[in-house]
Amino acid sequence: MPGPAPTHRPTFTPAQLADCERLRRQHNAPQLPVARAKLALLLHRDPALDHATAARCLGKHPNWVRRWRRIWAAEGFRLTDRPGRGRKPASPPSGRGDRQGARLRAADAA
Question: pLDDT tens-digit profile of 2-31?
């Protein structure tokens, strides 16, 4: 039984669809943008496709389909996450400017 009709129906330009097709065919492309490109191509072919059916076709969760549909309809088309999402990388301590290195050098001299 299909779900309700989607409320967000993004539209794609021919240039965006060409980018999606090119990314889908690359052998060494990152996995997540390729999945998003496949979703865009699928939704272009059938805009009325419900979330559950689209998710089943791509092996994803319906919430993932719903999220990207909403993003594309509200914010415009993109295949990457916004910058600044996720955990920030921790910088390793430097050997020169920190106090521990100075203490170690002093201990070696004694």
Answer: 666 777 888 899 999 999 999 999 999 999
In this structure, the number of other CB atoms found within 10 A of the CB of residue 27 comes to: 4
Burial 65-82 (b: 16+ CB within 10 A, else e): bbebbebbeeeebebeee
CB of 82 within 8 A of CB of 68? no
Alpha helices in 1-110 (DSSP H): 14-25, 31-45, 51-58, 62-75, 99-109
> What does the block give as tokens for 86?
């996720």
Spatial distance between the Cα atoms of 70 and 78, rounded to a whole number of angstroms: 12
Rounded CA separation 44/47 (Å): 6
pTM here is 0.72
Distance CA 40, CA 74 (A): 15
| Phi, psi dihedrals of residue 24, rounded to the nearest 5° | -60, -30
